[in-house]
Design goal:
Layout: E1 2-7, E2 11-18, E3 21-29, H1 36-49, E4 59-64, H2 67-81, E5 86-87, E6 97-98, H3 108-121, E7 125-130, E8 133-139, E9 144-152, H4 154-163, H5 184-211, E10 216-221, H6 224-231, E11 236-237, H7 241-253
Parallel strand pairs: 1-4, 4-5, 6-9, 7-10, 10-11
Antiparallel strand pairs: 1-2, 2-3, 7-8, 8-9
C-alpha cells in the first residue's frame, strides 16, 4: 500500500491507497513542536483504529509547504514505517510541464493538484485549493501548468480582521442569509463570505477570459464546499485532489505508468 502525506501550514492530510483505491484518510494538525516519535505514535494509533498496520505500507510520498517539519516527518517514516519517503521536489516526474519563470518556486501541493486535476478532469482545467492560502492553478490542453494566483485563505483573512482591529470581534465563518447585515456579527459574516465568493468568481472568469475557452473548475480544501454552494462557477468539489495527485506522481516515478 502507498501512504500519501500532504503537509500544509494548518493540517497534514494523509491517505492510504491500495492500488488506485483510497482505503484510509486521516487529517491531523501540523504541529511544528512534535518530535518524530510523537508523530509516529499518532499515525500508529490512527492506522490501528482503522484496522491497518504500518507494516502494510510499501511506499510513502510527501508534499510539503512547511520545510521546517520535513526532517522530523522523514525521520518518523524511516523509524516507524521502515521506508524512505519520496518528496515532491523540482525535477520529479509529474506528467505535466510547468510554464513558470522559476519552476522551483512552485509549491509541491500545487504541482500535485495540477497533476490530479489534469488526469481526473481533463483540460483545460482550473483548480482552487482553499487552504491557509487559497491557490489557483491552470492546466491547458497540452498538459502545461500555465500558472495561477495566490490569495489569503478565508479563515486567515477573518482571523486577521478580528486581531487587527480594536472593536471588531472574532467571529465564526458562516453563510448568512442576507448580504445586508443588521448586526456587527452579520456584517462581518456577510462581508467575509460574500466578499470571498465575489473574489473567487471574478478570478475564475478572468482566467477563462485569458484562456479564451471554457474550462472545468475543480475545488478542494476545507472551505471548498461552502464557497462552491454560492459561487455558481465551480463544477466539482474534490476534497482529496492533492492526495490523488501524489499517488499519480508516485506511480510515474516508480515506473508504473508512462509519462
Amino acid at each position: 500500500m502507498l501512504f500519501c502525506m500532504d503537509i500544509g501550514n494548518t493540517n497534514i492530510k494523509t491517505a492510504l491507497f491500495d492500488s488506485e483505491k483510497m482505503v484510509g484518510y486521516w487529517r491531523v494538525s501540523t504541529n511544528r513542536t512534535y518530535t518524530s516519535d510523537e508523530y509516529g505514535i499518532l499515525f500508529d494509533r490512527l492506522f490501528e483504529h482503522s484496522g491497518f498496520s504500518r507494516t502494510q505500507v510499501e511506499g510513502i510520498i510527501i508534499s510539503s509547504v512547511v520545510p521546517t517539519i520535513n526532517f522530523t516527518i522523514e525521520h518518523m517514516c524511516r523509524d516507524y514505517f521502515g521506508r524512505q519517503p519520496m518528496l515532491v521536489v523540482p525535477g520529479i516526474k509529474t506528467g505535466i510541464r510547468v510554464s513558470y519563470e522559476n519552476p522551483r518556486e512552485l509549491g509541491s501541493d500545487r504541482i500535485a493538484n495540477a497533476v490530479a486535476a489534469y488526469a481526473e478532469y481533463g483540460a483545460p482545467v482550473i483548480y482552487i485549493d482553499f487552504g491557509t492560502a487559497t491557490t489557483f492553478g491552470v492546466v491547458d490542453n497540452g498538459g502545461v501548468f500555465l500558472g495561477g494566483c495566490i490569495c489569503p485563505g478565508i479563515k486567515l483573512a477573518s482571523e486577521a480582521l478580528g486581531s487587527g482591529t480594536a472593536k471588531l470581534p472574532r467571529f465564526e465563518l458562516a453563510r448568512p442569509e442576507n448580504v445586508i447585515g443588521k448586526t456587527t456579527l452579520a456584517n462581518l459574516q456577510s462581508g467575509m463570505y460574500y466578499g470571498y465568493v465575489g473574489l473567487v468568481v471574478y478570478l475564475i472568469r478572468k482566467m477563462k477570459q485569458e484562456l479564451g475557452k471554457p474550462a472545468t473548475v475543480i475545488a478542494t480544501g476545507g472551505m471548498a464546499q461552502m464557497i462552491s454552494e454560492e459561487s455558481g462557477e465551480i463544477d466539482r468539489v474534490d476534497g482529496t485532489l492533492t492526495l490523488k495527485g501524489l499517488r499519480l506522481i508516485w506511480m510515474k516515478n516508480r515506473g508504473e505508468a508512462g509519462e
